[in-house]
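Lesson 9: reading folded outputs for more than one chain in a single document. The general rule is that every protein is listed as its sequence immediately followed by its structure tokens, and records are never interleaved. Here is the first one.
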Amino acid sequence: MTARRLASWATGLSIDAIPEDTRRAALRHLLDGIGNGIGARRRDQGGPGLSVARGLGGPAQAHPLGDSEAISAPAAAFANGVLMHALDFDDTHAGALVHPTTVVAPAVLAVAEEVGATGAQAVTALVAGLEVACRLGAAAPHGFHSRGLHATAVVGPLAGAVAAGLLYGADTDALTDAIGIAASSSGGLLEFLDTGANTKTLHPGNAGFSGVLAARLAMAGASGPESVLEGRRGLYRALADRDIDPDVIVADLGTRWESARIGIKPYPSCQLMHAALDAVGAVLDAAREQGVDISPTRITAITVDVHPDSLEIVCGPGTGTRAPRSVYDAKFDLPWSVAALVHYGAVTVDTYSGKSIGRPEVAATAGLVEVVSVPDDRPAADAAGRAVITFDDGNRIIGEVPCSRGTSGQPMDDDAVADKFRGNSVGNSSAGGDDAEALVDAVFGLCDAPSVRPILALAAAVVAG
């Protein structure tokens, strides 16, 4: 059975068996996730999840990002999952269309701190969990989304359970049970897309919490169905209404590393609009080079190509014809985000503020955006981008990109990820800058560190400023 094959591979994994570039990629994603969580704390986002996690209390086992008081490991995993996802700035595996780090890193940080794991053990668990998340999602591309489910919330509990189980010392039998148990917590409805609610931010928290609980239950002797992936009532038939080829999940384990192909976001919005934003940015850059006045009032039309699988998520009813209903709603409104780029010259965390989304001139420009569905053989999150902007003198300027920045086709290196982390964690403030730099060094040096505890202590110092 596939769950056992995954468990057998994961329990046999060692830090030395992970290629250096894959290890380094995992550390970039860990730094990115921590930075996103700190960024959420700085902007008072993710607060309800953090408040509830603190209220759960429990033994002092692990720290939520930015806190100096420890709570139970499951509660800390919940808090950190919510914080890492709150800005919608977290990484994406294009083929799986999941946010792997935000469901795996919270479990790793919490359990590694709880059990006193070494840095090498934490990184090994992180890579194993990321690999499982990517492969489970890629086995049914857009399958969960098409059923109204958030793929990250479907595969997240299983990936978190694998990472937590390894740190708890699970053998193959126990880890197989943990995967089977975790799958009964899979879910995550996409109904928020039609309301502007931000329930999606809670999904990774639920996944991390469920993953840690599943691992603990398995270690305590609870059993889970070994056939949970390919069974007739298993994950894919029940939640994606399809059969899958198990070999797609386990093929080339240990030689092909999907976790090294996870993209890191340059924009704090849904990944499915990033190629369009980059293409519009290319138009604006070309116009400046040509000496064209790019004042928004001169624009008469904007046309952007969009992958068919992206339409329902970022070009749904009301997008481009009404102002966003909430900050989170704006992050899934491609026409409005394109218009914001035209007006602001950039799309940053501050673009999606309450004040920003209410500007009528941006909403007016969003009404000029025409979306064209263009098939692409590649996954939607890896698709090319094309945009055309027409000005009031009839001048048409075209911008094209082969894929969006940050994806595996145009990846961010260590320096770029560290810069993003600095922007999230300290911004333009000098407060906390030294601690932020020490945190960058601590994350990139984790493989040789005795524990993850200095990372959590530094995160608290950065938040305290």
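And here is the second record, again sequence then tokens.
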Amino acid sequence: MRSTVVATGLFISMLVPAAAETAKAPILLTPHRAIYDLSLLRSTGSKGVETARGRIAMEFGGDACDGYTMKYRQVTVLDSTEAGSRTLDTQTATFEAGNGLSMRFKSTSTTQGLVRDGVDGDAQLRPDGSLDVKFKQPRNEVFEAKGQPIFPTEHMKRLIEAAEKGETTLSVKVYDGSDDGKKVYDTLGLIGRKIEPGAATNLEEAAKQDGLAKMDRWPMTLSYYEEGNADRTPIYTISFELYENGITRALKIDYGDFALKGDLKSLSMQPNTACQR
């Protein structure tokens, strides 16, 4: 199982000639720790999942000056008549440079306590937009890709920018180091209409705190495809509501045969830094 719930962004503001409008202030992302409780939303097929439960813990920090850090862990227990009970545990730690040109990543996945996958590497974008990846684990080797892929932090930056401009779609190639670390994904982001502060009454208690009360947010759906196969069924789809400071709620992860819902159980936020780059 693969999932990624991350949200980041920060862009420099510039002065323009008096005849033009002044560019918007940079997006300030809030360092935070969020916990989501997982439950089964949907299951299809005679061999589908009957029950599911679990938790996602995500910790985001940093800024565009010092770079961004992300720690992510998802533990999911799936029950089915055919396969019995399975416990899947995925842990990921990343560091992305503030300029979006490099990323360090390390991840492990276990099933029933047995290590299934483990990847440790460094990714670098060349000036021509191609990608170089050097692995430390599971073995010393390299991976290269073209097509100007971007990293997850940059992806979320662009989603926030597109949402603030009123755009409804964003299509980019994304590299996140997941699975065996040798895949670039075609992604399609669908951006819904802005939700004004106070417009909804069904928020989780964790989302009612003052730090979010006056912030806009947008419903988003991100579909991930095998590179070159964007006209087919996505490998998986993630939907959520994204606040302008990078925090998410109303999480849904659709793996095709089944889908999980993630309710925001707790949220702690730290002050933004003074970085304005």
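What the second record shows: The chain is about 5% helix and 50% strand.
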